[in-house]
Write a structure and sequence with these properties.
Layout: H1 12-27, H2 40-53, H3 62-73
Helix pairs in contact: 1-2, 1-3
C-alpha cells in the first residue's frame, strides 16, 4: 500500500534558505549531526526538489540572492522595533 505524500509549502525565500542549509549539511562535517542513515533519504529528496524548483541556485548572483533571503527572514531585534 502506497503512503500518502506530505506537501510542505514554503516561500521562495524560505526555500532558498533551506536549500543552502541542506547543501551545507550534505557537503560538510555537519553531516555528523544526522545519526540515522534513514534520515538521508528524505533529506536528499527535499534537496533535489528544491534544486528543481529554484533555478536561481545556479545563477551567478546566487550568493547575493541567498543573503537577501536571509535578510528578509531574520527576525528584527527588539531594539529595532522602537
Amino acid at each position: 500500500m502506497e503512503e500518502p505524500e506530505v506537501i510542505i509549502k514554503l516561500t521562495r525565500d524560505e526555500a532558498t534558505i533551506l536549500s543552502g542549509w541542506l547543501e551545507r549539511l550534505q557537503m560538510t562535517d555537519l553531516s555528523n549531526t544526522v545519526d540515522d542513515p534513514a534520515a538521508w533519504a528524505p533529506i536528499h529528496r527535499i534537496a533535489g526538489q528544491l534544486d528543481k524548483m529554484l533555478p536561481a541556485l545556479f545563477f551567478p548572483d546566487y550568493d547575493v540572492r541567498l543573503e537577501e533571503a536571509r535578510r528578509c527572514l531574520r527576525p528584527l531585534d527588539d531594539d529595532s522595533q522602537d
